[in-house]
Amino acid sequence: MAAAGLAGGAAAEDYPTRPITMVVPFAAGGPTDTVARLVAESMSKDLGQQILVENVGGAGGTLGASRVAKADPDGYTLLLHHIGMATSAVLYRKLPYDTLNAFEYVGLVTDVPMTIVARSDFEPADLKGLIDYVKANGDKVTMANAGVGAASHLCGMLFMSKIGAQLTTVPYKGTGPAMTDLVGKQVDFMCDQTTNTTNQIKAGKIKAYATTTKERVSSLPDVPTAAEAGLPDFEVGIWHGIYAPKGTSPEITAKLSASLQKALKDPLVVKRFADLGTAPSSDAEATRDGLKTKLTAEIERWRPVISAAGVYAD
């Protein structure tokens, strides 16, 4: 046993000796994929081995997560997932893995703000006007999302819960098609990440009502927070974390956490995150404990919202 322990320690000390696969459970080109590729590139330089991003989409992110849960716990298969890691534990009543116990934790990466946006010619002039309009017109108003369990779907559910109104939701297969139809004025409004909306807002292709943050987003200084615009306690951040299969050694996850913390200080990563309207997680958050605490709290936060809506993905 002692010999085996020494061998395991030596393997962790030499790690990594070959390329690492980072699974992103969504399509290439989306907001989470963008975050993953920025971080993977910087971590690759630090670790001396390339981190290859592999997109394994489907079933609201649960297919990719399931693949990593079943992978060898040797540190060569990782998962970068967003808030859906928490909400899938409620949205899916039967998952092929135990969300809290099927993974080891590496750390939080970033917490991306959301924006409430509409087609450029939508009648309401501000967020208060939007809320009044939705309450008056009900299911005549269309709200796009990127599919059940997507960040835009979750934000939309919380919005309807907060204002006490129901409207017609229009699910798409990803944020790209949803945004295309919003720009094309085929749907009225949506709630989506700054990584997907900032450029469209700046170009005047869509109308911005609010951000879902405590303070204004630096890349969108003219857009008020939801609280400033008349909707208090509406804060939604689409956080991203890195996980490894259960049983991955503490030495390896510690090395990955340290590399993640270095990547989040990389000037290029900091700048690109700022361009996308977000910021890197702190050293305290980019740790195993930081991510586990966040995931646990978020599962409990979203459980009553999803249960009250009665919307399930299975």
Proportion of residues in extended strands: 15-25%
User: H/E element string?
Assistant: HEHEHEHEHEHEHEHEEHHH
- Residue stretches low in confidence (pLDDT < 50, at least 5 long) are 3-7
- State the helicity in percent bands: 40-55%
Global shape: globular
Termini Cα gap: 44 Å
What do the pLDDT scores average to? 92
What is the total tally of β strands? 9
**What's the Cα radius of gyration?**
20 Å
Please give the largest β-sheet: 9 strands, mixed
Q: What is the structural class?
A: alpha/beta
Number of contiguous helices:
11
Which helices and strands, and how do they pair?
Layout: H1 2-14, E1 20-24, H2 31-47, E2 51-55, H3 62-69, E3 77-81, H4 84-91, E4 103-119, H5 127-137, E5 142-145, H6 151-163, E6 168-171, H7 175-183, E7 189-193, H8 194-202, E8 206-211, E9 237-245, H9 250-263, H10 267-275, H11 288-309
Parallel strand pairs: 1-2, 1-3, 5-6, 5-7
Antiparallel strand pairs: 3-9, 4-7, 4-8, 4-9
What does this structure look like?
This protein has 314 residues and is α/β, with parallel strands linked by helices. Helix content is 42%, strand content 19%. The protein is built from 11 helices and 9 strands. Strands 1, 2, 3, 4, 5, 6, 7, 8 and 9 form a 9-stranded mixed sheet that branches. Strand 5 (142-145), helix 6 (151-163) and strand 6 (168-171) form a beta-alpha-beta unit. Helix 2 (31-47) packs across helix 9 and helix 4 (84-91) crosses helix 11. The longest helix has 22 residues, at 288-309. The chain is globular. Residues 3-7 have low confidence and may be disordered.
